[in-house]
Amino acid sequence: MGAILQPNRDVMDRVPSETAFSPNAAAREPSAHAGVSLSRTSPATHVSSTIAWPLLVGGGLIAGAAWGINARLWMRYITTDPEFSWGGTLFIVIGFAIVGLSQSVAFVARRRISTRWKLTLVRIATFVGLLPIFGAAGALMAPTVLLGALAMSHSDWPKWLRGISGIGATLPVAAVSASVFADFSVLHAMLATIWLIVIYAVVVVAAQFTLAPQLDGWRPPKPLRLVGFAAVLPLLLGAALTLFAGF
Predict the structure, then answer these.
(1) Which of 11, 49, 78, 133 could join 95 via S-S bond, C-beta 3.0 to 4.6 A?
(2) Quick one: CA torsion of 149, 45, 106, 195, rounded to 10 degrees?
(3) DSSP SS3 for 187
């Protein structure tokens, strides 16, 4: 796919360590000669340069499926009417498996594709890969995943917008937590809430590989940026409605 680049060592010594695990870690690094390993850059790029991309993608698929099983167990933990459905279970597990697959593809693509339009097409496809977990009751958590990933990865956004997005990401969690507290004991509900936060925190981190901006120096024109900001509004509205319905 794209050529792998080796950064100049003395330049890398000046790169802050907190950028090492960024979805755009490779994009932040200055380039030198094509075809040289990234093994001395950062832990994240070291992983992608020493492990074959099919293993990374396959690992993402397996990890996603395992996380789907975890999510299914959480749903069983909070139900007041225990029922088991293979169809529903497979829907959840497969949905999370697709998320794991798509976001691992985005991870690999950000480190192997240097052409903007090609990477943009991959990001569109991997964004679609996020959607299966938003089916049925999972739609409640869409603002959490999308707003959370946008707020965490878009450091170029105004602080007020990132703050509002971060708050919006927490509202569905609060709504679900409120409904759980209404049906179970305090201890049971607290464990369920913590479990829910862990499940979706992992998804938010993974979604950043798709939703983080491409840090290649290109900046969209102002009208396009305004359209992007406007797209956040429905997510904020949905989060607010979710909280209102939950209470």
Answers:
(1) 133
(2) -40
(3) helix
Interatomic CA distance for residues 111 and 27, integer angstroms:
8
Contact status, residue 112 vs residue 237, Cβ threshold 8 Å: no
Q: Take residue 219 and report the two structure tokens written for it.
A: 């900046």
CA-CA distance, 24 to 213, in Å (whole number)? 8
DSSP secondary structure letters along 94-120: HHHHHHHHHHHHHHHHHHH---HHHHH
CA nearest to 144, candidates 63, 200, 214: 200
pLDDT of residue 246: 55
- Which amino acid, residue 113? I
- Quote the CA–CA distance of 230 and 244 in Å, as a whole number: 22
Within 137-185, residue ranges assigned H as helices are: 142-153, 159-183
Please state at what angle helix 159-183 crosses helix 222-246, rounded to 10 degrees: 20
Q: Which pLDDT tens digit goes with each residue over 92-117?
A: 999 999 999 999 999 999 999 989 99
Dist CA 134 CA 242 (whole Å): 14
The separation between CA 144 and the C-alpha centre of its own chain, rounded to angstroms, equals 10
For 12, residues 6+ apart whose C-beta sits below 8 A from its C-beta are: 29, 40, 41
d(CA 102, CA 247): 34
C-alpha triplet 58, 60, 65: angle, nearest 5°:
100
Retrieve residue 64's tokens: 């996603």
How far is the C-alpha of 182 from the C-alpha of 179, rounded, in Å? 5
